[in-house]
Amino acid sequence: MSTASEALAAMLEKVSTENGFIAALDQSGGSTPKALALYGINASEFDNDEQMYGLVHQMRTRIVTNTAFTGERILGAILFENTLDREFEGKSAAQYLWQEKHIVPFLKVDKGLCEESNDVQLMKAMPELNSLLDKAVSQGVFGTKMRSVIKLANQQGINDIVAQQFDIAKQILAKGLIPIIEPEIEINSAEKSAAETLLKSTLLKTLDQLSNEQKVMLKLTLPESDNFYAECIKHKNVIKVVALSGGYNREQANQKVNANHGMIASFSRALTQGLSAKQSDEEFTNVLGTTIDSIFTASKT
Q1: Which of these, 273, 264, 288, 214, lies nearest to 75 by C-alpha position?
Q2: 109 Cβ contact partners less than 8 Å away, ≥ 6 residues apart
Q3: Dihedral sign from CA coordinates of 185, 300, 170, 236
Q4: How far apart are CA 164 and CA 168, in angstroms?
Q5: How far apart are CA 260 and CA 136, in angstroms?
Q6: Alpha carbon distance 251, 1 (integer Å)
Q7: pLDDT digits (tens, 9 = 90+) for 228-272
Q8: Tell me: the pLDDT tens digits for 33-79?
Q9: Choosing from 145, 219, 240, 256, which is the catalytic residue?
Q10: Tens digits of per-residue pLDDT, 3-29?
Q11: How many other β-carbons are positioned within 10 Å of the β-carbon of residue 44?
Q12: Can you say how many angstroms the Cα of residue 12 is from the centroid of all Cα atoms in its chain?
């Protein structure tokens, strides 16, 4: 077995068997200004995208290199493509995560959302996906993440979302990477519970059509009914079901993860909540450590 194959096998073992959660550090062009604002950096402090991405990389670097951010409580971290092209402490971002922190690297591969149709937003076309996946493989990335959005309980729209997600997932699997499939249901949807019922049924039917070798992960909105996605968690083709915070604050999100056995957190806003560019290193470490501990504890159930 090659060194790369050994590393991927070790990553799969970690994600499959260890306790922990996945840190979502993949804010892209649309979500970065808000993430920076919550971190205490206003839009007036940068003039263009290059400066903006430089500032958000400083934020991510401060998080990832912190002593509280380790593989003892964190299974994986999701990176944005811009981060994949950068370094943490002189080492490529994905390799730093695994080699220095023993945290499994994932890469966000979608290019944003299409206009709403049939009460959902599909993913935009990804004409450069193959080259991006090749880059991910060359840098030691384990898996990918891609997000779609469901607004209402529209069966056609949900069929379209699941079909698109799994079609692209098969392309990702063919490269030897593990896809995280993320059909997010908006937490404030007037038909959230009904949409969950349609989504679960469609997911299970589609999972049943995979071969034994085709393993995926699911990233789902925390459900209205506790343990609603238990069948997905137990499915033979599912490595892990992770939960997005979706706009819930950290306390709410942790409570919901804790109530859904076998589901683990994959938080973005709820992870960085309370962190500030203005904090001293000691304050920053204390807040980050407390946050990581609370999300880890919630994910252990």
Answers
A1: 264
A2: 81, 126, 129, 132, 133, 136, 144, 145, 146, 172
A3: negative
A4: 6
A5: 32
A6: 44
A7: 999 999 999 999 999 999 989 999 999 999 999 999 999 998 999
A8: 888 998 999 999 999 999 999 999 999 999 999 999 999 999 999 99
A9: 219
A10: 888 999 999 999 999 999 999 999 776
A11: 6
A12: 16
Let me know if domain 10-299 sits in CATH 3.20.20.70.
Answer: yes
The answer to whether the beta carbons of residues 292 and 265 sit under 8 Å apart is no
- Check 182, 196, 215, 256 and give the catalytic one: 182
Catalytic site includes residue 219: yes
Token pair belonging to 70? 């380790």
Active site residue 108: no
The DSSP symbol for 2 reads -
Asked whether 65 and 58 are in contact (CB, 8 A), the reply is no
Q: 0.85 cut: is pTM over it?
A: yes
Residue 289 pLDDT: 98
Render pLDDT for 97-115 as a digit per residue (tens, 0 to 9).
999 999 999 999 999 999 9
